[in-house]
Amino acid sequence: MELITILSQPCLTKLLEQRQTFGVTRLADLTRLDPIGLPVFSAIRPQAKHLSVALGKGQTAEQAKLSALMEAVESDCLENPPKALLHGAYNALKDEHALVDPALFCQSAFLCNIHDQPLAWVLAERLHRKNTQALFVPQNVFDIDSSVERSDFSYFHISSNGMGGGETRYFAACHAMFEAIERHALTAWNARLPKLQRQYELDISTIDDPALCHWINRCASKGFQVRVWDIHCIAGVPSFYCTISSEGLGRQDCFSGSGASFTRNHALMRSLTEAIQAKVAITSGSRDDIFPHYYQKGFQAVQGGQAVSQLGTLSFQSIEETQGFSQDEAGFSELTTLLSKAGFDELIFMNRQLDALGIWVVSVLIPGFVFGSQR
Q1: Are residues 158 and 197 located together in one domain of the fold?
Q2: Cβ within 8 Å of residue 324, ≥6 positions away
Q3: Domain of 278?
């Protein structure tokens, strides 16, 4: 979630007051578990149908609380997708209904003739070159409920990727798209040869934003080295991969984060704070998806095929950005234009307006994008 206050105070108050409606029983302050000091909170949902802990970060404790709450809301939405309005196989329904081709989402290891498989379908919105169309999408691509065993889950690459929340639909949609861009960029970057990755490491001494410098210096003062790579894949959308590492207890530990946004300062702040949050998550051990081997496998003193002593030379100021836009209607239009110029001119949105909370939660699917982990 954002490191800025994205909701009005009345809406924030409502989220805090009604947190139990989306399963949150308590908020935990994890900040003091880590010497860096970035505010990090967790929102606990004991009855969750997937992960029971949502993490949030921010420049202040209040922002971190709300970040965790928004993550919890988003998870609750994905665990409880909209009711299916249509049932049947793609081949049997396509002549009478507008359907997305389910093969677009079949990146699973389990192969089948997906067009003849009976599926549940939910209504979504397709945006193609500024034109919108209502169409049906397989319910499973918006469903991470892992509390039940369902064979049709094996057909699709299912994850919580590409989801965002906010007080307006446009803000939530922009946040969802930035997350999808970030994950796609990271997957593509990880596929590069190490010698190509080396060319995109930043010289962190060229970073001049005061807020970024504060947290980088804070990491350094506590014995952590910060490294950053330019991983952008969409022109005009800065995207970064960041690691923080230190030698301790006879081995070296590394934590990473990634982020994308209109401006390089904001994109790097997202990736840096994500790395710090990852460190806090491992330290706390409270997330359901933190496994024992995470504590047994030390980080090797090589990143991207490069010795730690060989640091980057790329200037932060050389990173292309798109200034003058925020996550509003104009920003939404600009971001979809940038995606279209990069060859991704079809977007599928699931928009959910939560009137009781005064917020929107939006999921986006971008055909052609890849993401390197399941669920």
Answers
A1: no
A2: none
A3: 183-318
Output the pLDDT for position 169. Answer: 95
d(CA 227, CA 249): 21
Burial of 9 (0-12, 13-18, 19+ CB in 10 A): exposed
> What's the confidence (pLDDT) of residue 110?
61
Question: For residue 76, what is the domain's CATH number?
Answer: 3.30.160.20
Q: What single-letter DSSP state applies at residue 81? A: P
Distance CA(267)–CA(239), nearest Å, equals 6
pTM for this predicted structure? 0.92
CB-facing half-sphere around the CA of 66: CA atoms within 13 A: 25
Amino acid in position 354: L
For helices 169-190 and 329-341, give the axis angle rounded to 10 degrees: 30
Provide φ and ψ at 236, rounded to 5°.
90, 0
- pLDDT digits 0-9 by tens, 215-264: 999 999 999 999 999 999 999 999 999 999 986 544 457 899 999 999 99
Q: Report the C-alpha gap between 312 and 104 in whole angstroms.
A: 37
Compute the distance between CA of residue 54 and CA of residue 374 in angstroms, rounded to an integer: 18
Q: Strand 53-57 vs strand 86-88: parallel, antiparallel, or unpaired?
A: unpaired
Number of domains observed in the structure of the chain: 3
| Residue 153 sits in the same domain as residue 191 | no
For the chain, first and last CA: distance in Å? Answer: 19
Query: CA-CA distance, 165 to 363, in Å (whole number)?
Result: 9
